[in-house]
Every structure is written in structure tokens, then in C-alpha cells.
Amino acid sequence: MNKKSKKLNLIICGIAFVVMIVYLLFVDDPVDIWNAICSASHGYMLLAVGCMAIYWLLESVNLHLVAKEVYPRQRFKDSVSVSLIGQYFNCITPFSSGGQPIQAYYLIKFGVPLGSALTALLSKFIVYQAMLTVFSIVILFFRLGYVSDTNPMMMPLIIIGFIVNSAVIAGLLMLAFFKKPTVKIAHFTVRLLGKLRIIKDVDARLKFIDDEMEMYYKNFQFIKKRPLLILKLCFFTIIQLLVYFCISYVIYLAFGLSGTDFITIISCQAFVLMISAFVPLPGALGAAEGSYVLFFKNIFGSFVHLSTVIWRFLTFYLAIIVGMSVSLFVNRKNNFSDNVTEPEKK
Q1: Of 96, 88, 132, 79, residue with least CA distance to 245
Q2: CA nearest 263: which of 85, 144, 127, 139?
């Protein structure tokens, strides 16, 4: 990502934050907002911040576990820095696409060989995506009926989000265990899209897909040989997701609300994540806030808009602030540059 694109995305995120605050002041009385903030439990609010910090810590632990496996000299503080910088770039790029490239860049700068850095990041991604899909299946099983009763209009979006997440992990698993058929399906799809004139340079796209599939296949062979590492990554990833989904419940308790059980609240949070997954904007701007309001309006009542702002600040804008600060500190201390551009096409 070049500096111009990064600045543009940051400006978009800043505008979105201002719009969110203005909207809050428009739909709720400023006096009521202030009274709600003053009456909220400071202890629970700090706990919500703590949940986000634990989420980042577990993200760092997962990265360090797999990075240490491929590069024994990897330091934990470097893993923390890379993780936080990755969170920052995930927030300011569509589909969270900027996190992994920038993390690979910083891992290399910290001494990790390119191949080892890619192996670490892709292995962690594979496990994270698998655990997210499993978590989504469990949530759908227990609380899909609740959504169909309270928010039937959201059902198609939830299903689409679930299909997108499931398709990613299904494709990865097919590649791991059925490489040749998967490659053939991919080639058939690309050629079909070429005939429909959706893809122009078919040969270049086929080469790109072959290279990507080969890289993912090699990473599967790497993690398949390390069952203990897989178990550790799965364990910490499940806790990481659970902690993230708990943030809304902690905010709920901070306002002194009751009547909705823990499972329902974390399920609604998971549904918001499913919908946000396929929105091609940095941080799923607009979609994340809108779906949060729709899912939680019956749970938070008059506090729903304020709780949306608090949740969004903790899970999105705080990551930008912290990640950007870490990025500036690391760059200044080590004389790095976070201006990552794509290689020129020949």
C-alpha cells in the first residue's frame, strides 16, 4: 500500500467517525448521551478495553507461535509490533487485505526470511479462518431461530456472509487434500470468466492462481506435520474470538442492562462480523455500524446508538490509533518505512 492510498483510507475512516458522532447527536439528545456515559460502570468500560487488549495479545501469541516455529530467533516483542501494525492496516484496507502484506514486510525487516514470513502468516490465517467458520456454524445452530424471529430481513445477509467465510475455508481444505481437482476447478472458472470477458488476461490470471495455490499447498504441508502447533493455534484463536465477541456483552453490563443472555449477545456480534466480511470498504464502514444497530436495537433499547459508537471505537478506531502509533514508533526506532507497494508487472 502506497502513502497516497493509506492517507486516502485514513481520511475515509476519519470522515466515517465524524459522521457516526454527528449521527449519534442527531438521533439521541446530547444530555441523555452525557447522562448515560456518566452513569455507565467505569469498571465494565475498562474491562471492555481490556477485552480488546487481550484480543490483540492473543493475536500476537498466535503469530509468535508459528513465527518461532519457522524462525527460532523471533522475539515476542517483534511479534506484538507486527500484529498491531497488521491490525492497523487491516482496518484501513478493503476486505482487511492490507494486513498480511505489511506484516510480511515487517517480519522481513526484523530478520525473518521471506519464505518463513509467508509460511507463518499463511499458516496462522488458515487456522484463524477455520476456527471462525467453526464458531459461525455453532452460533448459527444455536441462535439462527432468534434472528429469523427478531430480524428476518437480515437473514439473507447472514447466509451470504456465512457462505463467503465457509467458501474460503472449504477452498483451502480442498486445496490441502485434493490439490489437482481444485486446480482444475480454478482453471475452468478463470477460462469461463475469460470467455464472458469478465477477465481480460486469462494466462496471467492462471499463472497468478497457480502460484498462490502452490504457496497455500506448501503451507498446509507445513502445518499438517505439526499437530501440537495446530492445537495451540486453535485453542488461542477460539479464546481470541470469544473475547472479541464478549465486548458487546461487557458494554451491555456497563449500562446496567439485563434480560438478554450471554449467548444471544455474542451470537448477534458474530452475525455482525459475518455480514461485514463481504463489504468491500475499509472496516466495512457503514455496514458494520448499521448491522450492529439492527441486531442490538431490541437488546440495548435506548442505549443502542451510544453502544454502537463505543463498540466501534474499541474494535476499529482504537486499533487504528494503537497500530499507527506502534508503526510510527517502530519505523522511527529502526529506520523502517511502511510504504509498501506492489511489484511492477512485466
Answers
A1: 132
A2: 139
Assess whether pLDDT exceeds 50 at residue 343: no
pLDDT over threshold 60, residue 107: yes
Q: At CB < 8 A and 24+ separation, what contacts does 323-328 make? A: 323/84, 323/85, 323/86, 323/87, 323/88, 323/89, 323/91, 324/88, 326/81, 326/84, 326/85, 326/88, 327/85, 327/88
C-alpha–C-alpha distance, residues 27 and 16, integer Å: 16
C-alpha gyration radius of the chain: 21
Q: What is the mean pLDDT of residues 258-273?
A: 91
What CA–CA distances, in Å, run from 334 to 83, 111, 251, 320, 325? Answer: 17, 12, 38, 21, 14
Mean pLDDT on 4-26 = 82
Q: What cell numbers appear for 234 in the block?
A: 486453535
